[in-house]
Design goal:
18% helix
Length: 152
């Protein structure tokens, strides 16, 4: 089912989300359907009116490499480096912003087999941090416009 996407300046986008305690399988499926239909690469609970620590992500589907992921009660436990990307947001349409993010992160989250950690780099790391911001009531508008990254 396609869910309505909450638009800025709705105050729910500023809520710090609470941990997920119940089954979110159906919600996550609906969030993935909504994300793909939008079309986006990530979608967090508050963007569909749910103030729980949950987001869905598929950083590569637009490149023809679908990899739908669901992250429940995520927590960034490590970060390294710096990258700058132009980011958009489904809740703030047509307002791209250059945002600096870590180049690599380690994310802890609840999965089907319990709590686990996974490392992400590059664009996926930036997408995850963007969605983590949503869970803490932070929007791309809150970040100062970043200078381009230094060429490596």
């Amino acid at each position: 089912m396609i869910l309505p996407i909450v638009q800025h300046p709705d105050p729910i986008l500023r809520v710090v989300c609470r941990p997920v305690t119940g089954d979110v399988t159906a919600l996550a499926r609906d969030m993935l359907d909504t994300m793909y239909a939008a079309p986006g690469r990530g979608l967090a609970g508050p963007q569909v009116g749910v103030t729980e620590r949950l987001f869905v992500l598929d950083a590569t589907w637009k490149d023809g490499l679908p990899d739908p992921r669901v992250f429940v009660n995520p927590e960034i436990v490590a970060r390294d480096g710096r990258q700058v990307n132009e980011e958009g947001c489904l809740s703030i349409p047509e307002t791209p912003r250059r945002v600096a993010r870590p180049a690599e992160i380690t994310l802890a989250f609840d999965g089907a087999s319990g709590r686990r950690e996974e490392r992400f780099a590059g664009f996926a790391a930036a997408c995850i941090w963007h969605e983590m911001d949503h869970l803490d009531g932070v929007l791309i508008l809150d970040h100062p416009e970043a200078e381009p990254a230094d060429p490596a």
